């Protein structure tokens, strides 16, 4: 297997030595960090997104041109010269709103979101859709990089796919995920399985990378469960965009699509011309109170629940940023999905941890003919475990490639995680 699957990491000509470009993106006017800014090398289509504190990290080469941009700011271009940390100051854009028709009706965020939902069938892919995905994952505990892996996959979102994990009892349409190549950058320093990548909210699997398709925020039946506010009307590239802030009123499963989440809030950027979401930013908060109560209740028992709840948390939250790109057919698809999570706490009866994880995904549409190949791949026994099983195989090499038994501990753990983390556990563990 050749090292480095990402074309962005391959030399693009006679450039200087490789450097790890690091820094912080700041608002020049206020000095505040600019979260989720795009840091890119245009010549190689390489890039990353700054975290919630504006910090970024990007492999580069001396002399390469790097562009830093964020909606609402003028882009900045700089040259990669050394590994010394940078402070990149973005100037707020001076928006000329003379050409934008603004009325009380057009500024109603709920009306705008209803138009987004109504236009989704026209704006976004709803039939079988295939894409190639480059994924890079990192796990850090305190200041030690524990694991880093990258892989290239083909994915199929079937017509009707609109629920994470297939919806109720996983009976609905589900994404097909086929790993083509993988490269372990930093081998895991301890035994790992799929569970190390399970996080609250979306973003750590390709099936959760498209919020417009799967989030209750973009469904008319659950839109009323959110507080909405029009943050601003911005112009970029001669086009106007609505920036709408959202926050779930009560973080139930029906409102968020997830269990044991205590908060879900963020912003969506909507193109005024066609009411398409072009960027999505979200912050998920894990319900640490409920998690800690369950962990302490069953600690020291022989219950299966005790094996699943081994940690208590003082903090557990995640940022997820998605950008959409319009294809040649006029429909939008996910271009990038970047998720970053921090969890702080300790293992019951064990050591403390300060863990940070990231999952970067970059999508490229595939020809429609590939859909038939991916659909046929469902019959391949090595894919019966879906993406979780493939990731387990990539990380540990313990996946046998045989069809799984529904009563196996692996399936019971997977189903329990996907369907419910609380109310169904008795029925599940008594299978």
From TrEMBL:
Q: Which InterPro entries match?
A: CarboxyPept-like_regulatory (IPR008969)
Pfam families membership: CarbopepD_reg_2
Does the keyword Hydrolase feature in the UniProt annotation?
yes
Keywords from the named record: Carboxypeptidase, Hydrolase, Protease
MF terms (GO), sorted A to Z: carboxypeptidase activity
Q: What name is this protein filed under?
A: Carboxypeptidase-like regulatory domain-containing protein
Lineage here is: Bacteria, Pseudomonadati, Bacteroidota, Cytophagia, Cytophagales
């Amino acid at each position: 297997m050749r090292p480095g699957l990402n074309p962005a990491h391959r030399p693009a000509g006679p450039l200087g030595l490789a450097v790890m470009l690091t820094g912080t993106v700041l608002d020049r006017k206020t000095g505040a960090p600019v979260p989720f800014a795009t840091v890119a090398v245009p010549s190689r289509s390489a890039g990353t997104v700054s975290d919630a504190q504006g910090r970024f990290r990007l492999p580069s080469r001396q002399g390469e041109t790097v562009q830093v941009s964020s909606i609402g700011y003028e882009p900045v271009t700089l040259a990669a010269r050394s590994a010394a940390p940078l402070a990149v100051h973005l100037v707020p854009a001076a928006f000329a709103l003379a050409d934008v028709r603004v009325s009380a009706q057009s500024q109603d965020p709920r009306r705008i979101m209803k138009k987004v939902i109504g236009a989704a069938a026209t704006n976004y892919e709803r039939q079988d859709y295939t894409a190639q995905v480059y994924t890079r994952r990192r796990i850090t505990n305190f200041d030690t990089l524990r694991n880093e892996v990258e892989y290239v996959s083909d994915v199929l979102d079937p017509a009707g796919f609109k629920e994470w994990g297939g919806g109720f009892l996983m009976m609905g349409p589900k994404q097909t995920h086929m790993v083509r190549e993988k490269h372990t950058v930093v081998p895991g320093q301890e035994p790992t399985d799929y569970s190390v990548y399970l996080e609250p909210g979306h973003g750590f699997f390709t099936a959760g990378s498209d919020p417009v398709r799967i989030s209750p925020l973009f469904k008319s039946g659950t839109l009323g469960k959110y507080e909405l506010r029009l943050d601003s009307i911005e112009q970029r590239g001669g086009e106007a965009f609505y920036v709408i802030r959202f926050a779930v009123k009560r973080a139930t499963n029906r409102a968020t699509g997830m269990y044991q989440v205590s908060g879900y809030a963020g912003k969506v950027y909507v193109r005024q011309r066609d009411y398409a979401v072009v960027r999505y930013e979200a912050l998920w908060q894990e319900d640490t109170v409920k998690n800690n109560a369950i962990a302490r209740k069953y600690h020291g028992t022989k219950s299966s629940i005790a094996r699943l709840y081994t940690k208590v948390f003082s903090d557990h939250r995640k940022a997820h940023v998605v950008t959409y790109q319009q294809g040649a057919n006029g429909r939008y698809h996910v271009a990038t999905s970047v998720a970053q999570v921090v969890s702080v706490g300790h293992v019951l009866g064990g050591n403390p941890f300060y863990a940070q994880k990231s999952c970067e995904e970059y999508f490229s549409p595939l020809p429609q003919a590939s859909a038939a190949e991916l659909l046929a791949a469902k019959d391949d026994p090595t894919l019966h475990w879906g993406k979780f099983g493939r990731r387990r195989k990539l990380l540990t090499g313990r996946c046998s490639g045989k069809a799984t038994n529904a009563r196996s501990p692996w399936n019971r753990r997977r189903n329990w995680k996907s369907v419910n983390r609380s109310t169904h556990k008795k029925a599940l563990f008594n299978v």
